[in-house]
């Protein structure tokens, strides 16, 4: 089987991470990450392209050296430099990165400042209160790390949801061909649309499980069969992903869906409610004195404990069971509620397509408006527009708007927030825009206090509208910068600013918890794909997943508004 683009990207990212832990030159680290992201998102497979005799170095972010490395990976499946770096890195350091929330920067800090080289060291240091004292950590994040350490079983590698989808789709297609199969669904954190998944939990109904299990373990991509049984089998795929398959009888499908969708915390709370009413709830149904009284559908199980159906994204035991009892469950936002996209790039800065191509693609999605947000010209972003370039760009938007019938392009910019909190364009430029999307692109290492202040100062500017990718994190790649989100949200509320939920699948920034916090504090969200190409516009759906996990409804999201009402909001 040829190597997937995803596997190449994973190796390049891993190389970048290990080099970053070592303290390698940041340009070099970034070069590998950018290459990884190019490969991951590229529509054609590297191995096909090489077969066709194409030169990989013509791809963005891929030079001769990287083209050669990719070719080696395609031919041998290995990246020798990665092996070299792996050999000289203490294995426990890369192990530390498997803990959610610990990226290479933080691992390096822990190693340098506290000589932490293993999970054990880390646990001890948290107990001793040492981690809490390092800048960038604090009590809260130490507490979170502690919880995750407790959960961590040692070989768990969490996979971004979008990558899990790419692995799951062909497997699901394959499984559907098994003999005697009834229903099939991917349950677990995947169904809850969590930003990363630990493994895939596939639930199948069938009268006879043997043919299903036999078919499953013969899947081409299986690397190792961990266990094979009548009701449950587990394998590892070549990507390292663990897959659990469970087979239950048809009449238990609803109860089993609830059980295997989780979360565990939701299930435990649900079972307690059952016990209170004298019922036993498990994956086979709801039982009263050993008699099955429900379980064929999920609704039937929730009904037994006097609850309305709860959407999978909400099942985290964060208040959803109470809300389902008193009718206050949110009516979660869906993709079709979105009327436009407020963060996109074209060729004018670092995007791949023209204004017109982006406009046409957005029109096809049924959007009423599309904001073009090229970068401002700051020190860190060479691709940004200076005053004259922006001015010409805005003229082009006017010209194109005169031709477009079903969609309006909004004039905006992704304005860099400078270290002292000033915006990267003067007011006389900013006032020509319909609104701004403002973001941090450099100086990620400021203290929590300074970083928070920086954003609050920026929000003082009356031309500040939306705070883009508010934490700067890249899932599994870059830690968030240290800020006080509650303070930022308070300030946004006071000043009439909005917070972005960046829908790029590797960002998903705000987190689900951040979304819920914003909603509870009355700060509205822009869900935006930060598209750099026409196909990136589709990532809106990843933002919708995250928004739903954050309890967001139509009223909480500004790009569910018609254009006129939206523009009203930007009059501060
Ligand atoms: P993951 O894989 O770490 O992203 O998270 P999940 O939620 O997919 O967890 P996983 O794969 O360990 O288990 C799948 C579901 O099975 C989980 O969401 C709830 C259920 N489950 C697993 N273990 C237990 C348990 O000990 N008690 C209960 N009530 N449910 C469990
Ligand atoms: Ca799972
Ligand atoms: Ca599992």
Structure description:
InterPro entries: DNA-dir_DNA_pol_X (IPR002054), DNA_pol_B_palm_palm (IPR028207), DNA_pol_lamdba_lyase_dom_sf (IPR027421), DNA_Pol_thumb_sf (IPR037160), DNA_pol_X_beta-like (IPR002008), HHH_MUS81 (IPR010996), Hlx-hairpin-Hlx_DNA-bd_motif (IPR003583), NT_sf (IPR043519). This is DNA polymerase beta. Residues 3-316 form the DNA-directed DNA polymerase X domain. By secondary structure, the chain is α/β, with parallel strands linked by helices. The protein folds into four domains: 5-151, Orthogonal Bundle (DNA polymerase, domain 1); 159-248, Beta Polymerase, domain 2; 253-326, Beta Polymerase, domain 3; 335-569, TIM Barrel (Alpha-Beta Barrel), CATH 3.20.20. The chain has 24 helices and 17 strands. It is globular and about 75 Å long. The relative contact order is 0.07. One calcium ion is lined by residues 188-189, 197-199, 201. One calcium ion binds at residues 188, 199, 201, 244.
Topology:
Blueprint: H1 5-22, H2 26-41, H3 46-51, H4 64-76, H5 80-88, H6 91-96, H7 104-114, H8 119-127, H9 138-151, E1 159-160, H10 161-175, E2 181-186, H11 188-191, E3 196-197, E4 200-206, H12 209-217, E5 222-228, E6 232-237, E7 242-248, H13 253-261, H14 264-276, E8 280-282, E9 285-288, E10 291-294, H15 298-304, H16 320-325, E11 340-341, H17 355-364, E12 369-375, H18 387-403, E13 408-416, H19 427-430, E14 437-439, H20 448-460, E15 466-467, H21 485-495, E16 498-502, H22 512-521, E17 525-528, H23 540-549, H24 563-569
